[in-house]
Recover the amino acids of this structure.
């Protein structure tokens, strides 16, 4: 099998696993488990950090799905109009509103904007869901006025030491976390499918 064919098979396996995980919920665990080992990407693909595809056709406004890429949880969040509107309101409260400092990955040029998103899908946030303090996984998104740590703002909360992030993954001031959440390279295959770890310039 050629490298391209192998990558295509790996992507398909990943898609099926992710779709099953998201759609199955708790009730789907028992039927999912027997398939997991056969759906694992090849050792070569894992070592190389192969890009992964995600089907976002069932992702509704206000929802988040998680895709494993290079062993990292990558969040895909479809933000609501209210969550989008919150971004410009919290600017003065953020440590680095323009994401001038990056954490583990350079900020892709196409996400250097107020939404930290691609122009063709401004509502979709794609970030690595790892707190930049000591690596815990934040929870959320929380809507406005539903979490005391976030106050009136929607966003994410790291349960370990209380860092909070806005709806673009930008950390609020005076929190333990020093940097915003990473934005990996990604691109849209079509309106309902995107690939993480790869863009027009190649793989991350
Ligand atoms: S690991 Fe998130 S605040 Fe410390």
């Amino acid at each position: 099998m050629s490298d391209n064919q192998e990558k295509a098979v790996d992507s398909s396996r990943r898609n099926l696993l992710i779709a099953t995980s998201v759609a199955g919920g708790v009730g789907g665990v028992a039927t999912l488990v027997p398939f997991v080992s056969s759906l694992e990407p090849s050792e070569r693909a894992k070592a190389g950090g192969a890009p992964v595809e995600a089907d976002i056709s069932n992702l509704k406004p206000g929802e988040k799905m998680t895709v494993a890429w290079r062993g990292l949880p990558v969040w895909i969040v479809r933000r609501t109009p209210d969550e989008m509107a919150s971004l410009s309101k919290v600017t003065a409260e953020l440590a680095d509103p323009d994401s001038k400092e990056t954490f583990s990955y350079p900020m892709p040029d196409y996400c250097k904007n107020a939404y930290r998103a691609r122009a063709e899908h401004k509502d979709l946030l794609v970030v690595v869901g790892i707190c930049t303090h000591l690596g815990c996984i934040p929870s959320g998104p929380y809507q406005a006025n539903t979490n005391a740590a976030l106050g009136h703002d929607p966003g994410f909360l790291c349960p370990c030491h209380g860092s909070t992030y806005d709806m673009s993954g930008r950390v609020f001031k005076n929190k333990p976390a020093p940097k915003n959440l990473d934005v990996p390279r990604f691109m849209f295959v079509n309106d309902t499918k995107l690939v993480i770890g790869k863009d027009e310039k190649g793989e991350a």
Notes: Helices lie at 3-24, 29-39, 43-48, 81-89. The pocket of FE2/S2 (inorganic) cluster is lined by residues 131, 133-136, 158, 160-163, 176-177 (CB under 6 Å). The two ends are 24 Å apart (CA to CA).
